[in-house]
Amino acid sequence: MYNKINIEGAVLVSVSFTGCGGSMVLSDGSIMVDDVAIDTQGYTKKALQWFPTNALAFKDKYTKRVRRYLENIGIKTPLGIVVGEHALPEVESFIESAKSAFMEEVDEVCANYDLIIDRHAREAVAKNGSEKIGKIINAVKLTRQQFRDTFKVVSMPPVSLSTSSDEEAEEIRAMLSDNALKALVEDANHLFKKSYRGRESVTKAATAATFELQEKFYNLSFSDPNLSVVAEQFADLLDGVSIDEQSGQTFHAMYRFVKELSEETSLLDLMKGVTSDDSEEDTESTQDTDVTSLSSEGDNSDVVSTVSNADISTDEEAETSEESDTSTQVEVEQESEDTVQTHTEDEVPEVMPQRISGFGNF
């Protein structure tokens, strides 16, 4: 016996959509059709697609839909997707809705089962140039009811994460926090590069995506209380903002915040309650000092007029050239402040979760 330590607020969820793949590997020998042996030579040990794959595409559609949803509100781990306990009612409702829609499509396919099989068999005969393949398809196909019974939605009841030691509990919490941080930075970086960088406005779709990112920060805040601080700042930023094209002051505020979220170091600062205002003030102060120092050596307007004056001596032209280079350097430095910096993915360290053992519920 051991004391079970639960990871508060975190639950593991899993759901999968399964069903017939419509294929069968034929064995050596013959298939009996109306008491007549159909030689399977040429088809043996091959996967015969007796039901068309395009009619089964809905399976992947629902699997991907649910996976995208869970990954948006939860955290991917080696165990599966972990969501906040507060989100369970919404998760269960979404899964039930997806399950109902999935089974409706199953019923629709089953209602046209025989027609689909007949059309598929005719197309196979035309493609292969042999009546044999059509007879084999009709010989190996499942009955309509057998076919329908293969389709299921398997949903595991939500399981609280637990372990037997404080050390393992800390490892789990660190894994959840690291994975959440990585996912949020990746999403913010993708949004910034696609919809903000180099622009003076954002589209309606980009604004909607920004709201979705804010919602994800809220959903993943169960993994780290400090993410709640960022989620609240994000909510304050978007308070009163409509899901429409944005420009001007609203755009620049959104631009600045999303850019901070797209870089791990600045996001960590936000989580600690440190804003970029202080560092920017220091930078501006340094720049003012540099400009003042340069101005004390000579007025830039005089430099320009001196350069254009052909009567100035060679020594004066050299001195003026140096000052002009200094002025140009200042201008370049100032322009670089207004340029959006490009950050590659290499700057964001990849966080790889470690294998965790000792869960009480697994």
Topology:
Layout: E1 5-18, E2 23-25, E3 30-33, E4 36-39, E5 47-49, H1 58-73, E6 74-77, E7 80-84, H2 88-111, H3 113-128, H4 131-140, H5 144-149, E8 152-163, H6 166-196, E9 201-202, H7 204-219, H8 225-238, E10 246-247, H9 248-261, H10 264-271, H11 277-297, H12 300-308, H13 314-338
Antiparallel strand pairs: 1-7, 1-8, 2-5, 3-4, 6-7, 9-10
Task: Give an account of the 3D structure.
By secondary structure, the protein is α+β, with helices and mostly antiparallel strands. It has helices spanning 58-73, 88-111, 113-128, 131-140, 144-149, 166-196, 204-219, 225-238, 248-261, 264-271, 277-297, 300-308, 314-338; strands at residues 5-18, 23-25, 30-33, 36-39, 47-49, 74-77, 80-84, 152-163, 201-202, 246-247. Strands 6-7-1-8 form a four-stranded antiparallel beta sheet. Strand 6 (74-77) and strand 7 (80-84) form a beta hairpin. Helix 1 (58-73) runs antiparallel to helix 2 (88-111), helix 6 packs antiparallel against helix 7 and helix 7 packs antiparallel against helix 8 (225-238). The longest helix has 31 residues, at 166-196. The chain is elongated. The model is unreliable at 278-362 (pLDDT under 50).
